[in-house]
Amino acid sequence: CQALSREERIIVEAKTLTRIYAAIEAAMETHHSDYFRLLKLDGDEKLRHLEEYFLRYVVTDIVSTGDYTIAGIAMYAQTTEDIIYDVMTGKNYTAPFAVVRKIINLHQSVRPRLYQEFMLEIIAEYQKN
Predict the structure, then answer these.
(1) pLDDT band with cut points at 50, 70 and 90 for residue 46
(2) Run of H or E residues at 61
């Protein structure tokens, strides 16, 4: 198999991150379905909620494994504990892309089976085409 060029690796990584985002968003939607039904959120409101809470969900899931603390996540992501804490508590929904990317990589390391499933779905999707 021939090595990918830098541009090809960037495209593959971007597509993979997009697919991972969609898979985690779907899991969040399933997990919070009762909440969405209770609040009677329409499609746009639900999408906005999922987008706002995506990073919070990932950070909370990392902490819930017991493998990392807020300080550990901050150190791994090369950012401050305040940023991670604000994301986790919902005070801030955004972080620089480099930080988001590192948090997702960390999430992959604490939930490897989940990401293996995502990758198998991606492979199956591309093999159909």
Answers:
(1) confident
(2) helix 43-64
